[in-house]
Amino acid sequence: MVLKDIFGKKEKVRSHGDEIDIENYLSDLSIREGKIIEREDVTYVKPIDLDSEGKGIGVVIKELEKGNVVVLNIKHVLSNKILVRNIVKELKDTVEDLDGDIGRLSAEKLLLVPGGIRIVHRSAHREGEEVKE
Q1: Domain limits of the chain?
Q2: Which residues have a Cβ under 8 Å from the Cβ of 7 and sit 6 or more positions away?
Q3: pLDDT tens digits, 23-57
Q4: Which residues pair with 45 in a beta bridge?
Q5: Residue 1 exposed, middle or buried by CB count within 10 Å (0-12, 13-18, 19+)
């Protein structure tokens, strides 16, 4: 009994079926008032949507400069081929300047990564082969 008083109760180990207190979980993630409080020592993966006029490129560039990964939804600009070409060129130039990379996830989504990260493209990588720059 004395040891129990000194060391306290043993915590119950959670099983997969136990519910998680979402409020405690979110507070541990540094989320306040629906917004993530970003830390400089953490790399984030951020989904960003472009509007039909291509607005949002500046946000993408800022996120890449901060070292974050961007999943860019270009769905709303796909009908304007010239705009898509210009956006992709600007983003490609930006990631090259930052020593990053750009790749296509789907017809509507692009993956942009900052410096120090490379995307292994399927066509350039076969199982068992090493890709060299």
Answers
A1: 40-124
A2: none
A3: 766 566 555 555 666 777 888 899 999 999 988 89
A4: 69
A5: exposed
